[in-house]
């Protein structure tokens, strides 16, 4: 079958891009390997969540999916507090100081994907192929021919890889990438605390790595991201529930009181990936297929959404009949690479700075946090940048 654009990956970023393109009348096919589980209000909270910026919320609104997110569940957070476990440095951001109702929303990734896939169904010019897996592709003079694992053949002007860190599109296009193993794992779970989270995202920097308590719709429930050295994370994962709850509460200095109970625990390795090129002839990468970052501030999906918004704008402003032209794709890469590289390096730098136990580094970070906290204008600018405003 013939399309204008094929998107490999119907996750959050790929589905958002598909909605933006379909709204403008583009003939789009989305290839997704797995249908996410349907949502029920009785479901336990998922372990994988995103800290959605205000800019990303606007994109979800533009994609026609935000109302569906709110109909399921999302938690606005009105403040963020960050502090160093080895010193006195701390900083707090509050939406009220910015004249905003909130700093963003904590949303389960499955909820975001389901809302976007629901929006996809409203476009007759958009076809969701699920389950579908990319097998290989071939370039012709003015098109790209995609073959699926079940033997079906599709053609388009452009193939977009939004298929995650293990991207098949990136591999088949032989686009080189750099990989950095952080030698850390993120331990994730849902924790129920004795004290309410007060719509605040809490993050404490420990010598072993940061621990974050991200507020969920239940006032006493938080999504936990606890970064630890890989070998230590494996040991922590094996602790019995009572010990885990006690140590987790201690990790946040019991700011939310004792941990009453926890959900299912999981851990995943942390690696930084960056494609040396996002594009080649009739192929473009975006989201985790192009870059992954340290989950320090939950910025991964926000970067991916910025990729999607930029690529959609360039395609829709294209005055030529060829949406897969290398000239257009290189404009997308130039527009996004700098922001992605900067964010990746800043997150890595923060991780290194706060894990260093040498006295000069402790003084630097504590002085830095305290100084920024006392400079309202600088704090205001930092907060608005993080919100994408």
Return residue spans where pLDDT drops below 50 for at least 5 consecutive residues: none
Mean of residue pLDDT values: 91
Biggest sheet descriptor: 9 strands, mixed
CATH homolog superfamily of the domain at 5-47 and 109-179 and 272-352: FAD/NAD(P)-binding domain
CATH fold descriptor of the domain at 5-47 and 109-179 and 272-352: FAD/NAD(P)-binding domain
Treating each run of at least 4 consecutive H or I residues as one helix, how many helices?
A: 12
In what range is the share of β-strand residues? 25-35%
Measured between the Cα atoms of the first and last residue, the distance is 40 Å
Structure classification = alpha+beta
CATH C-level of the domain at 5-47 and 109-179 and 272-352:
Alpha Beta
Task: Using the alpha-carbon principal axes, give the shape.
Answer: globular
| Overall radius of gyration | 21 Å
Give me the count of strands.
Answer: 21
What is the architecture of the domain at 5-47 and 109-179 and 272-352 at the second tier of CATH?
Answer: 3-Layer(bba) Sandwich
Question: What share of residues is helical?
Answer: 25-40%
């Amino acid at each position: 079958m013939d399309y204008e654009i094929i998107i490999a990956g119907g996750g959050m970023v790929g589905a958002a891009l598909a909605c933006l393109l379909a709204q403008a009348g583009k003939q789009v096919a989305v290839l997704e390997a797995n249908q996410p589980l349907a949502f029920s209000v009785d479901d336990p909270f998922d372990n994988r969540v995103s800290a959605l910026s205000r800019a990303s919320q606007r994109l979800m609104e533009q994609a026609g999916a935000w109302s569906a997110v709110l109909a399921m569940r999302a938690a606005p957070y009105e403040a963020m507090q960050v502090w160093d476990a080895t010193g006195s440095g701390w900083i707090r951001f509050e939406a009220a100081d910015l004249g905003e109702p909130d700093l963003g929303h904590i949303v389960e990734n499955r909820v975001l994907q389901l809302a976007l896939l629901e929006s996809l169904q409203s476009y007759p010019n958009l076809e969701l192929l699920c389950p579908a897996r990319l097998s290989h592709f071939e370039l012709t003079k003015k098109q790209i021919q995609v073959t699926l694992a079940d033997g079906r053949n599709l053609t388009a002007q452009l193939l977009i890889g939004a298929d995650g860190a293990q991207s098949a599109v990136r591999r088949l296009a032989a686009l080189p990438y750099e990989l950095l193993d952080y030698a850390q794992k993120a331990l994730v779970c849902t924790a129920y605390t004795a004290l309410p989270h007060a719509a605040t995202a809490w993050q404490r920097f420990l010598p072993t790595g940061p621990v974050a308590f991200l507020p969920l719709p239940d006032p006493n429930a938080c999504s936990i991201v606890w970064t630890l050295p890989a070998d230590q994370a494996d040991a922590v994962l094996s602790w019995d529930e009572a010990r885990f709850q006690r140590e987790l509460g201690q990790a946040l200095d019991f700011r939310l009181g004792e941990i009453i109970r926890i959900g299912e625990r999981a851990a995943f390795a942390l690696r930084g990936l960056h494609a040396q090129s996002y594009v080649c002839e009739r192929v473009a990468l975006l989201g985790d297929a192009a870059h992954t970052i340290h989950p320090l501030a939950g910025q991964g999906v926000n970067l991916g959404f910025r990729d999607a918004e930029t690529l959609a704008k360039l395609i829709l402003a294209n005055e030529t009949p060829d949406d897969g032209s290398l000239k257009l794709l290189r404009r997308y890469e130039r527009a996004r690479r700098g922001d992605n590289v900067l964010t990746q390096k800043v997150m890595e730098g923060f991780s290194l700075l706060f894990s260093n136990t040498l006295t000069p580094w402790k003084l630097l970070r504590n002085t830095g946090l305290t100084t920024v906290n006392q400079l309202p204008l600088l704090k205001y600018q930092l907060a608005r940048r993080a919100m994408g405003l």
